[in-house]
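Cross-check.
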Amino acid sequence: MIALVLAGLFLIVLIVRPAHPLASPDSSGSTLNGPPFAYSYTCCTESLVNTVYHPGDTIVVRWIRSAGIPTRVRATSITLSTGLSGPYRTVTLLKTDSVGAHPQLGGTNVSAVPIRVMDRTIASPVSILRIPADAGAGYYNLTTTVGTKNLTIGGAGIIRVALPVK
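Predicted model, tokenized:
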């Protein structure tokens, strides 16, 4: 049952520009026969939440770049952010405390350095979160946001931190 709850992976989708079916991008992000391409980002892979972590571990958040879409609008800056808060004794407590509340709950709060990319850049950004060595065992709320000047979209997933067996 817990595996099903942990597998409740989150997706954050930011559609930056309208799609155009005919053009194709080159490696620079521009098209050979039309306007430049704009890319969007989602987070994350299922393996991120289906892993048991330990205090001191590093969580690697690999942002997923979507296929580019042609646009004639000016380039947009995108900020990718990640945070971790907890521990909670149960998934139910985490969800109950997180509903309608600021995502930074619990005794441990960690944030990755925000990543800024342009929607025209072909990039595969990675956020790094380090679980503190003194972090307690339990469930943690992993939050992500994808933001532009006018729009921010967020999501969350649950990870588990266990104390190492001695």
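The chain has one domain: 2-161. The longest strand covers residues 77-88. Passed to J.P. for a second look.
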